[in-house]
């Protein structure tokens, strides 16, 4: 009887060990969060993207923003784990999807930081990170942001000691408008008069929008001094 009990216990321990290994492999394989992928729960095991604070969810309107490794970070806070806050400062432009886009229509995409150089002192607000016009409805649905690049994409680069920054995305139905920004204005991204720009082209409420938040995390990218959100730029209030 004793030998039978020992054998049964040994068999049970092997079964538990096998289940643990299987679960571990499944967890590691599911966490990649590749661009255009699923839920955006973070790349590494135990690394999660927390939702935005309740006071910051008003812009969350069915627009998806995918970055490599993290997946969809719409209405999320970029976490410190896996060095995501450092990586996002160097990644290329995200995939931006609007599933409600109309076939045959043209759209304008705008990405801005209203918290430059900080949320408590936004004297350079609406730092212009990306502006693209003439995006077809088909491309807007697939997340392929092709069109007339008015302002080249600049990744989020919140300056040190300025806390969390909001990075906001707006998509407007462009119609047949021919949209541009004067070269002299386009050279300097800070203190952009977004409201004036929208009024100039008769653009009112966006068709959709979203935002995410991130902050500086202790390591500067090589060209940080020339691209950070308002810290080293002249005051244009």
TrEMBL record:
<comment type="similarity">
    <text>Belongs to the phosphatidylethanolamine-binding protein family.</text>
</comment>
<dbReference type="InterPro" id="IPR035810">
    <property type="entry name" value="PEBP_euk"/>
</dbReference>
<feature type="region of interest" description="Disordered">
    <location>
        <begin position="215"/>
        <end position="237"/>
    </location>
</feature>
<dbReference type="InterPro" id="IPR001858">
    <property type="entry name" value="Phosphatidylethanolamine-bd_CS"/>
</dbReference>
<dbReference type="InterPro" id="IPR036610">
    <property type="entry name" value="PEBP-like_sf"/>
</dbReference>
<dbReference type="Pfam" id="PF01161">
    <property type="entry name" value="PBP"/>
</dbReference>
<feature type="signal peptide">
    <location>
        <begin position="1"/>
        <end position="26"/>
    </location>
</feature>
<feature type="compositionally biased region" description="Polar residues">
    <location>
        <begin position="228"/>
        <end position="237"/>
    </location>
</feature>
<keyword id="KW-0732">Signal</keyword>
<dbReference type="InterPro" id="IPR008914">
    <property type="entry name" value="PEBP"/>
</dbReference>
<protein>
    <submittedName>
        <fullName>Phosphatidylethanolamine binding protein 4</fullName>
    </submittedName>
</protein>
């Amino acid at each position: 009887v004793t030998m039978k009990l020992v054998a049964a216990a040994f068999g049970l321990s092997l079964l538990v060990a096998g289940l643990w290994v299987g679960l571990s492999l499944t967890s590691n394989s599911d966490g990649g969060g590749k661009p255009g992928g699923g839920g955006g729960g973070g790349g590494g095991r135990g690394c999660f993207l927390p939702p935005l604070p309740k006071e910051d969810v008003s812009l969350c309107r069915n627009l998806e923003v995918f970055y490599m490794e993290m997946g969809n970070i719409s209405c999320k806070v970029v976490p410190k784990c896996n060095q995501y806050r450092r990586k996002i400062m160097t990644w290329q432009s995200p995939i931006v999807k609007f599933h409600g886009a109309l076939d045959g229509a043209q759209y304008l995409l705008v990405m801005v930081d209203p918290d430059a150089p900080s949320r408590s002192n936004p004297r350079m607000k609406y730092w212009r990170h990306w502006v693209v016009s003439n995006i077809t409805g088909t491309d807007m649905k697939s997340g392929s942001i092709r069109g007339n690049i008015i302002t080249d994409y600049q990744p989020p680069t919140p300056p040190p000691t300025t806390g969390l920054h909001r990075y906001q995305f707006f998509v407007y139905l462009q119609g047949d408008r021919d949209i541009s920004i004067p070269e002299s204005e386009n050279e300097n991204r800070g203190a952009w008069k977004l409201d004036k720009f929208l009024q100039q082209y008769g653009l009112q409420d966006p068709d959709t929008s979203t935002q995410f938040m991130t902050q500086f995390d202790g390591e500067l990218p090589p060209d940080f001094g020339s691209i950070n959100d308002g810290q080293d730029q002249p005051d244009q209030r």
